[in-house]
Amino acid sequence: MSIPPLSPTGYADITQEVLEAELMVVIRHNGATIADLRTIFDSSFAALGRAMSAGQFIAVGPAYAVYYGDPQGEFDLEVGFPAMGAPTNAIDSPAGRIHTSALPAGPAAVLSHVGNYEGMGASWQKLLSGAGAEPRGVWIEAYVSDPSTTAPESMRTDLILPLKP
């Protein structure tokens, strides 16, 4: 599986996929909490949008977030896009340094969440309980729908849980 998601219609049931180590352009935030997410997302996507508009990279899929650690506590977070023409040097922005990263490769369980972001917790719980293997401590959200143009009840977010082999 790569981002953009393999299934154009989404994953109504938990599906096993294999992630590719895909090039990403991101802003990393260390020591974040759930309370920080709105500010992090707003500032990061604004900075990444300016970099795209300036031709510093080309997004080739939906926006995403990769959480490292415990998403209910303190975690590190990368916010960005799969990209081509990625910058060879980091770019300073008010939201943090824009740099390259990679989607973690390997086995993963995937489930689509349809609806507003506030309801994603139940979808994550369903994915965790039915993943079929132990998680690696990495949690990925691929924001397939654009929240500025999609009604909240129709928004699709693919939840991707990398698993230990």
Topology of this protein?
Layout: E1 15-19, E2 23-32, H1 37-53, E3 58-59, E4 63-69, E5 75-84, E6 98-102, E7 106-114, H2 120-130, E8 138-143, E9 156-162
Antiparallel strand pairs: 1-7, 2-5, 2-6, 3-5, 4-5, 4-8, 7-9, 8-9
What is the CA-CA span between the terminal residues? 16 Å
Q: Considering DSSP H and I runs of 4 or more, what fraction of the residues is helical? A: 10-25%
List how many beta strands DSSP finds: 9
Query: Any idea what the radius of gyration is?
Result: 15 Å
Structure class? alpha+beta
What is the global morphology?
globular
Describe the biggest sheet?
9 strands, antiparallel
Low-confidence stretches: none
Measured by DSSP, the beta-strand proportion falls in 35-45%
Mean pLDDT: 92
Tally the helices: what do you get? Answer: 2
| Helix and strand element order | EEHEEEEEHEE
Description:
The protein is of the alpha+beta class. Helix content is about 15%, strand content about 35%. Strands 1, 2, 3, 4, 5, 6, 7, 8 and 9 form a nine-stranded antiparallel β-sheet that branches. A hairpin with a 5-residue loop joins strand 4 and strand 5. The longest helix is centred in the N-terminal third of the chain and has 17 residues, at about 35-55. The protein is globular and about 40 Å long. The mean pLDDT is about 90.
